[in-house]
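Sequence in, structure out. Go.
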Amino acid sequence: MGLVDTQSQELKSLFRSGIAPRVIARRVGCSVDEVIRFAKKNRLAHATDQQRRKAVSLLRKGMSVRQVGHAVGMSHTWVVKLAEKNGIPLNRVRLDSQQRSKLTLSLMAGDRLDVAAKKCGCSKSTASEYRRRMIDRAGEVEFRNTRRGKAQRCPVHGLINVVPCVACAATRGQ
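Output:
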């Protein structure tokens, strides 16, 4: 479906005001894909200069990408691209030594990943990445998942879902 001249004028003004494409599509009565195609064809940026300046300033103050995206009203992927374009280093989440030790002890105690992550105050993905690296440090050990629904028991750490016990293998490798 082609856009009529009145729609295209309205689209241009809405884009220049910094409104998100999905909101523009609802207002004009067309699909989001059509709005994005129109913007690319007419070389319209979906962020105003004011939004860009605000995002860059917030990134330089040390706010996270998602926080900046929420504050400015843009997606976090757009904010990442803006940061790369302006040479702003992004703050990546790193576990401090206290968090690492809490996470290690929790995993060694046999806690599930989400429980261990909550105890140390990090996300599940961060905890999962740490566990993966902890296993890598354990050396060349072949791990396999236990049969579904059949948890096994480590004599030291209790119930486990991976054989051999991840915590035992990690402590042996140090």
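Check: The chain is about 60% helix and 5% strand. The chain has three domains: 1-46, 47-92, 97-173.
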